[in-house]
Amino acid sequence: MNKTVIIGSNHAGIAAANTLLDQYPNQEVVMIEKNSNLSYLGCGTALWVGRQIDSYEGLFYTNKEDFEAKGAKIYTETTVEQIDFQQKNIQCNSNTGERFFESYDTLILATGSKPIAPNIPGADLENIHFLKRFQDGQTVDKRMSEPNIKTVAVIGAGYIGVEIAEAAKRRGKHVLLFDGADRSLPSYYDREFTDQMDKNLSENGIELHFGELAKEYRGTKAVEAFVTNKGTYNVDLVINAIGFLPNNELGKEHLELFHNGAYVVDEYQQTSDPSVYAVGDCATIYSNALKKISYIALATNAVRTGLVAGHNIGGAKLASSGVQGSNGISIFGLNMVSTGLSVEAASKNKLDVLYTDYEDLQKPGFMADNAQVKIRIVYEKSSRRIIGAQMCSRAEISMGIHLFSLAIEQNVTIDELKLLDIFFLPHFNQPYNYITMAALTAE
Q: Given CA atoms 221, 226, 229, 232 in this order, what sign does their dihedral have?
């Protein structure tokens, strides 16, 4: 009987636990979680706060009792104070003050990530919040209901920042969106796409403040003003969404780390300590676009890494196939999806690339239910392998990005895409599909 202790029980930890419990009967599984709940879908927080869904209950997809029924031992509201990696022993403290130890044969670190906090004056004022845990969402939702909260500043125009800016606007607030970059969503999209999102945000009443860096919060008890390098703004609530860093506190002195602090893992999710695996946002992942290890913090990646770790610990040799970082966002009806690398990201990683753009209606012009679709395919100049794609439309085009995800994984070239068998039916697409046309017009 192998005893596996999993520290952290969100997407990655849960995927590993389910794999071990459901498929490997010789496993004893212990789960340690510092929160009072598990399995919270944080990507749904903005939908709930923005009242696009009725309640938060559906954002939890499992619970403690489900795992106990499978035979797991679960500690919630329990903090891991220290790990003795030589003796394979974990020191824990419960919320009641009880101190106890758990030994392990195999350890899975699924500690996730932690939000980046601006180290500026006034950070201890009230009404300055982050969005990570369920409790964070509860607090922000409660503040949105207060009539004295009229102006909301969102710091960070990545996915979480843009989504919560929309949610605050839907709750009737005056919303200011700040970012040090000169546009929204720069990590996943090139300017030709983010310009459309910025226009969409502005047209829906979001006040954009790009190229501004946080300098200070001001107020007596609660925040009253937010100061940047370009101005001072009166605000009633601040939501920080600058980004996240790997939570490596428990193993940073013992395990090999990536340049950003993530635990370095191999294709089996194994760290530099053979008895320790790391999964999810605290670990590296292999990028098929870059052809090397990288850091891509996405819930889907967390689930995949948890599955891989679970199978390998259980005894089945399973190597990860790598990821592309596929992602998407839908804001005020504008849908954007991407996978792999943008042209800008490729340049930062010193890849010599070309790209092809195409824009057309989703369906033939005679179809009433229709919308424009913009697509960009990024490919390596020398090998001509596809390394990225971006799509944007008010139509539902998200499934198309999965084709490009597979293309990147399988090293498909732009030329192989030109005569791909893509069907035509007016209800769905054009006779000359925009994917085909983008490939055909590639340099």
A: negative
Q: Is residue 282 annotated as part of the catalytic site, yes or no? A: no
Q: At what angle do helices 134-144 and 159-170 cross, to 10 degrees?
A: 30
Which of 218, 242, 266 terminates a domain? The answer is 242
Report CA torsion sign: 56, 57, 62, 64.
positive
Tell me which residue of 305, 345, 296, 306 sits closest to 113, measured CA to CA: 296
Query: DSSP alpha helices (H): ranges in 387-432?
Result: 400-409, 414-417
Q: Quick check: is 385 in a domain?
A: yes
Task: Give me the domain span that covers residue 37.
Answer: 2-112+251-314
Q: Is 43 a catalytic residue?
A: yes
Q: For residue range 343-378, list pLDDT tens digits in order.
A: 999 999 999 999 999 999 999 999 999 999 999 999
H or E element at residue 73: strand 73-75
How many domains are there within the chain? Answer: 3
β-sheet bridge partners, residue 198: none
φ and ψ of 126, to 5 deg: -70, 165
* Residue finishing a domain among 193, 209, 242: 242
Give pLDDT tens digits for 228-253: 999 999 999 999 999 999 999 999 99
Does 332 map to a domain?
no
**Percent helix, strand and coil across the chain, each rounded to 5?**
25, 30, 45
Given the residues 11, 129, 209, 311, the one annotated as active site: 11
Domain contains 321: no
Q: Would you say residue 367 lies in a domain?
A: yes
Record the tokens describing residue 232, joined without a space. Answer: 């001072």
